[in-house]
Design brief:
Chain lengths: 150, 907, 194
């Protein structure tokens, strides 16, 4: 269940940050398309969060599995300020556990909030902070650790 | 090999019982034809049974059964014979119906009987070994004899016929062909169906018996799979979908357990697993269990998705995957049509998308692997033969695991397959899958997913050289990516579009796409941008642009031709481009220096243009258009100018106010810049409202960001240089002709003209419908209605600078209180804003309101007194009394009372 | 930013060693930093109102970022959309996060329905600032006003916030929050929809 791509989407739906584990040209473009297409599902889920349905906890930020494709699974997370985090993981036969994904997202959210507190960062611009990059690298490492556990 | 990979139609359709019709001469005999039509296409479909009728000639040879081999000793050569399905669905009937024209009261009964019997013998011989029953239907022209009628002739004859043919009495039916045979036919069909079901049940029990034997011998014999498949198939034919589903699932699980891990067997098992999975999913959907179908499919794909097979033929794996996905998508969409509700994350479109992705992978592999094979001469190629069993490799047939495979044969076959693969035009397989996916996603309003699919489709169209279609498709997609500011994907799409535009020789589109590609937002290298800009600028000097890299050579030639045609076309091409909505390489900002302008001061307007292209850009003209068209002639730059990269150029305009627009808001309608040659190719870039779109995702140049846009300004009237005053001695007395002295003094440097001063009463207080105040120009001797006015105007011709005039008007009020009057002076004066412009005539106005309070002049009270100066109430007749009036002036609050005394006497 | 409570009975030795992730900052540090901010701004402006504006701008930066930080820390997935609830949220949660106590009073102005007053007795920012007599209208709580304004603007409640000291109680600072008409109209619409 190794994460292969992390994306941060702003509230106007353009990417603030998109990084894949192996930055090759071809694959990167594919991730761009994939993440962009998954925003559709995010929007749908966010709009239905307003009306709590049975079984769905309305107090959650975590949106769950957005789009299961053959190679990758896409997970989403939406914050209060309409900033969305998208995580793309490799599709293996093992069952992905929600708790692990939630933990990864939590780390990402904390890293994002930290970066936001930086007075030199203007909200709405591309994220270039090195600390954030390091945090994302550690998320990649952590997700690899999940695979090796199984 | 590839033929057996494909799903056969027999698998895709739900199976139907096969009943063979014999003895029907459809071509010559009209009655036979009618009977045949009734059976196959007749009415009352809802009551009909799922039977497939086939018309066999009477001497048709049915496939022979094979001898049951001794299962314990020999190993089966394969799981499922490749023609088994076909045989079961089309060849081996469960029932043979023999039609024979014979009436009960036929004169030549004996001969007919023997004829019938012999024909039956022929059929029986052909069906030897099978359990298929034969049924005779006598086509009769006489009306039907009711059942149970003890007419000895018919029953006698019937019994005789049956015994002669060797069939039980029940297998004989009579079909009187009257006008409406439908009822009979349906009854016959019911009977046929029952017999069919019997046949299949018999077959199932036969296989079960085999299975028992085999299982006793060795519990995990590979034949068990075959048995299970056959049993499940027959169960499905018998219309027991729930049982069939369970059996298929058992078979699938058994397959998973017993897979041998050698390469050949993998292919075979994969294929059979594909069949089983398809059947399971189909039945799940029809049993209204979509979730289990999806689960099964996922499991199936997860398990077999990794088995790529031998490397040179790995494209076949992707073909198989693609087929699996699209077949699943098909059954899913069938279910959706039947009323299943799909959601955005689980809908047939997803599966079509996956099928397309597999097909694209197949295409890539085939390009890489089969290139060599495509150039081998045909003499070295040999089509591999069809195998007897599904999924087996032809070069392994007839061998056991000990003997080595024939290497040369193998290589030849592989190469042939590769050559065949190479010839296939994959894009035409991919495009329908993608368009099906798009249609499903449209139901869920997944705009972005649809854009992604359209991009893939556009790419495929480009590959098959359908450039028009690609252009049309991708144009819509560009909007989405630009609006959401995904620059990387936008640049990739734009590059494809540029190639298409180049290959089609579309001048306008080519320029449009290059314009966006060289802008600041698109993340491609500077060399790329320089190259694109160079090409785009070459357009305007009448040349054709250089071909795009990556364009195949053969198409380049035709492109050259198209560009040459474009160049030689008669009319000069001038076109307009909306630069404000695109991420153009030139950005525009309009700034009015002030937010409001007086009518006699010049308007200052700055237009800033900034180019982010790598090379300098030269433009020939710049025009600013306003909503008020009178201003259009002022802002024009006619000489060519150059924009250096990343430097903002400022164009300053100042122009006078057009007096008719005083009080309006002057707004810029559009800014137009022209690039190109006069009379040659020209492009006009238009920025509507004078501003280009602001994309916030990328940081902008701080100097550029500091420029604040102000694209409208309010035109205020000129400040009047006039002193207006009204003099009056407040308060007025009621009904007095109260004089108001209106004075006008001019502080203008130039003489005024057309000075009009108007006074009016603003509060209209009426008592009993009559106005309580009026204005008079002069005191009339006898006031008539003509003189009384509510508003008054004074006209003066002109006033010199520094002069002062005054005039008296009169106000007469009849009620006490405060009245408000308004005075307004308007005049026109010439002004010169700047020497080079014409003098303007400004209309100025000044007004204010002032109150006038009215008081009663004096009050009169009186006292009655007696001659002794005592106050009395009443007066008596003929008695003198003193009437003393008292006058109180209200003016200053003091009462100055004069008390004259009148001595009166009533007479 | 939180302050340490001035409880005379507890000394430094009574407190636990590691504050376990409690997000506290030393009061003196904060006061020092703030005084530097005020001095820096003071040296670059020419009038009092400009000083207020500068402090307010700095506060807006901080306020805007507080939205995301609070969102992360409070773990509630929903933001308040109603006006009064949002102001209560500011009074309780935001103030607690910033100053470790709640703001004292929240009132609506009787004159206009778009103006609200938030009162705080003895705000931290003003504790170490003595205002000279000739600049008696200086109130460094303009910084906190900026925080509130940044927070409200970022959560789509456009407003203007002003800070001033009450005449009769100079230690109490009032923050006047004036919302734009669009916000009030929207709130009324939401009210009617419910």
């Amino acid at each position: 269940m190794a994460a292969v791509c992390v994306a941060v989407i702003s509230k106007q739906n353009f990417p603030l940050y998109l990084r894949s584990v192996n930055p090759q040209n071809e694959a990167d473009l594919q991730f761009q398309y994939l993440v962009h297409a998954s925003i559709d599902v995010v929007e749908e889920k966010v709009s239905t969060l307003g009306t709590p349905k049975a079984g769905q906890d309305p107090r959650e930020h975590y949106l769950g599995l957005l789009y299961p494709s053959e190679q990758y699974k896409v997970y989403g997370y939406a914050t209060n300020t309409r900033v969305k985090f998208i995580l793309v993981v490799e599709n293996t036969t093992s069952q992905s556990r929600d708790t692990e994904m939630k933990m990864l997202f939590k780390n990402l959210h904390v890293a994002y909030a930290d970066m936001l507190c930086n007075p030199f960062y203007t909200p709405g611009q591309k994220i270039t902070s090195r600390t954030f990059n390091n945090a994302v690298s550690s998320i990649f490492q952590m997700s690899k650790g999940f695979t090796s556990k199984e | 090999m590839s033929t057996s990979l494909r799903f056969l139609e027999e698998l895709l359709q739900p199976p139907r019982c096969l009943v063979a019709m014999s003895g029907l001469d459809v071509r010559n005999n009209a009655v036979h034809r009618a009977v045949w039509d009734e059976f196959t296409q007749g009415g009352r479909r809802s009551e009909r049974k799922p039977i497939l009728y086939r018309n066999m000639p009477p001497d048709h040879l049915y496939p022979k059964t094979s001898e049951p081999t001794n299962y314990e000793e020999s190993k089966p050569l394969g799981v499922l014979k490749s023609n088994w399905l076909r045989k079961q669905c089309l060849e081996v009937p469960s029932l043979v119906v023999f039609f024979f024209d014979l009436d009960w009261d036929e004169s030549q009964w004996e001969e007919k009987e023997t004829e019938c019997a012999s024909k039956i013998e022929v059929i029986r011989a052909a069906l030897e070994g099978r359990a298929t029953e034969i049924v005779i239907v006598l086509l009769q022209t006489t009306p039907p004899i009711p059942v149970g009628d003890p007419s000895s002739l018919t029953s006698e004859r019937a019994t005789a016929l049956c015994s002669l043919c060797g069939l039980p009495r029940l297998n004989l039916f009579a079909l009187p062909f009257t006008d409406r045979p439908l009822g009979f036919i349906i009854r016959l069909e019911d009977a046929f169906y029952k017999k069919s079901l019997q046949y299949y049940s018999h077959e199932i029990s036969k296989i079960k018996a085999h299975k028992e034997i085999v299982m006793k011998a060795s519990p995990s014999h590979p034949l068990l799979l075959r048995h299970q498949f056959k049993i499940a198939f027959y169960t499905e034919m018998k219309e027991e979908p729930a049982n069939a589903l369970k059996l298929y699932q058992t078979a699938y699980n058994h397959l998973l357990d017993s897979m041998f891990l050698s390469e050949d067997k993998i292919m075979e098992f994969k294929l059979i697993a594909g069949f089983l999975s398809y059947k399971i999913c189909q039945l799940c959907f029809s049993e209204d269990e979509p979730l289990s179908a999806i689960q099964q499919f996922r499991r199936h794909v997860d398990r077999f998705g990794k088995e790529q097979g031998t490397r040179p033929l790995s494209f076949q794996h992707h073909e198989w995957m693609s087929r699996q996905f699209s077949a699943f998508g098909d059954i899913f969409s069938e279910a959706v049509k039947r009323g299943l509700k799909a959601i955005q994350t689980q809908n047939p479109g997803m599966y079509y998308h996956q099928a397309a992705m597999s097909a694209i992978a197949r295409k890539k592999l085939s390009h890489n692997l089969c290139h060599e094979a495509s150039i081998t001469p045909p003499s070295e190629l040999a089509t591999p033969p069809e195998t007897t069993y599904y999924g087996q490799r032809p070069w392994r047939v007839g061998l056991t695991d000990d003997l080595p495979s024939s290497k040369e044969k193998r290589l030849t076959y592989i190469r042939t397959l590769q050559a065949q693969e190479f010839k296939i035009e994959h894009s035409w397989l991919i495009i329908p899958l993608l368009s099906k996916a798009v249609s499903y996603f449209k139901n869920h309003n997944s705009e972005r997913m649809i854009s992604h699919l359209k991009v893939l489709m556009g790419e495929e169209y480009y590959q098959v050289k359908e450039y028009e279609k690609a252009l049309v498709l991708l144009r819509g997609v560009v909007e989405v990516y630009r609006r959401e500011q995904w620059w990387k994907t936008l640049s990739s799409v734009l590059q494809t579009l540029l190639r298409c535009a180049y290959l089609l020789g579309h001048l306008q589109d080519y320029f449009l796409f290059s314009m966006e590609l060289i802008s600041y937002y698109i993340p491609i290298s500077t060399e790329e941008k320089t190259r694109i800009q160079h090409n785009a600028l070459a357009l305007f000097s009448g040349q054709a642009p250089d071909p795009e890299p990556g364009v195949p050579h053969d198409v380049q030639v035709s492109a050259y031709q198209l560009w040459a045609d474009e160049k030689n076309s008669v009319q000069p091409s001038q076109f307009t481009v909306q630069a404000s909505s695109a991420a153009c390489f030139i950005e525009c900002k309009t700034v009015f220096s002030q937010s409001s302008v007086l009518a006699d001061s010049p308007i200052q307007l700055h237009i800033y243009l900034r180019s982010s292209a790598p090379l300098p850009v030269s433009l020939t003209k710049l025009v600013v258009l306003f909503y008020q068209e009178e201003y259009n002639k002022w802002c024009l730059v006619g000489e060519p100018f150059t924009l250096a990269p990343c430097l903002a150029k400022n164009f300053a305009f100042s122009f006078p106010v057009v007096q008719s627009s005083v009080g309006d808001r002057l707004e810029v309608h559009a800014v137009e810049a022209v690039m190109g040659e006069e009379g040659g190719r020209e492009v006009t870039m238009v920025w509507s409202n004078g501003v280009s779109e602001r994309f916030t995702s990328l940081p902008q140049d701080p100097a550029w960001r500091k420029i604040r846009v102000r694209n409208s300004t309010l035109i205020k009237p000129r400040v009047p240089g006039l002193e207006l005053g009204v003099d009056h001695g407040n308060p007025a007395l009621t009904s007095e002709y109260f004089p108001l002295c209106v004075s006008v003094a001019s502080c203008e440097p130039r003489p005024l003209r057309d000075l009009v001063v108007s006074l009016s009463l603003t509060d209209k207080i009426t008592v009993d419908g009559k106005n309580t105040a009026e204005l008079y120009g002069a005191i009339p001797l006898t006031p008539t209605a003509h003189h009384k006015k509510q508003s008054l105007e004074l006209f003066f011709d002109s006033l010199d600078p520094g002069a002062k005039i005054s005039e008296n008007v009169f106000l007469s009020t009849h009620t006490i209180g405060e009245r408000t009057l308004a005075i307004n002076a308007s005049y026109s004066v010439d002004g010169v804003v700047r020497e080079e412009w014409e003098p303007v005539t400004c209309v100025c106005q000044k007004s204010f309101s002032f109150p006038v309070s009215t008081v009663k002049p004096f009050d009169v009270t009186y006292r009655l007194m007696s001659t002794k100066f005592k106050v009395i109430d009443a007066v008596s007749f003929d008695e003198p009394f003193i009437w003393s009036p008292r006058y109180t002036a209200c003016r200053h609050g003091n009462s100055t009372s004069t008390t004259p005394v009148w001595i009166c006497r009533l007479m | 930013m939180t302050t340490r409570g001035k409880r005379a009975a507890e000394t430094l030795y009574d407190k636990p060693l590691s504050s376990k992730g409690k997000l506290e900052v030393n009061l003196s540090t904060y006061a020092f930093l703030f005084s530097e901010i005020v001095q820096y701004s003071h040296g670059r402006v020419t009038s009092l109102s400009q000083l207020h504006e500068k402090l307010s701008d700095l506060g807006k930066h901080a306020g805007f970022r507080m939205i995301d930080v609070l969102c992360l820390r409070e773990k509630t997935p929903k933001r308040e959309t109603r006006l009064v609830n949002h102001l209560l949220y500011i009074q309780k949660t935001l103030w607690k996060t910033l100053f470790y106590k709640e703001a004292d009073r929240l009132e609506q102005a009787t004159a206009s329905e778009s103006t609200f007053y938030l009162f705080e007795d003895d705000p931290v920012v003003n504790r170490f600032i003595s205002v000279p007599k000739d600049q008696s209208s200086l109130n460094c709580a303009a910084f906190v006003a900026g925080i509130i304004e940044g927070f409200l603007n970022g959560t789509q409640f456009a407003c203007k916030v002003r800070a001033f000291a009450l005449k009769d109680q100079p230690s109490t600072t009032a923050f006047e929050i004036k919302f734009e008409d669009s916000v009030i109209t929207r709130d009324k619409m939401l009210e009617s929809v419910k």
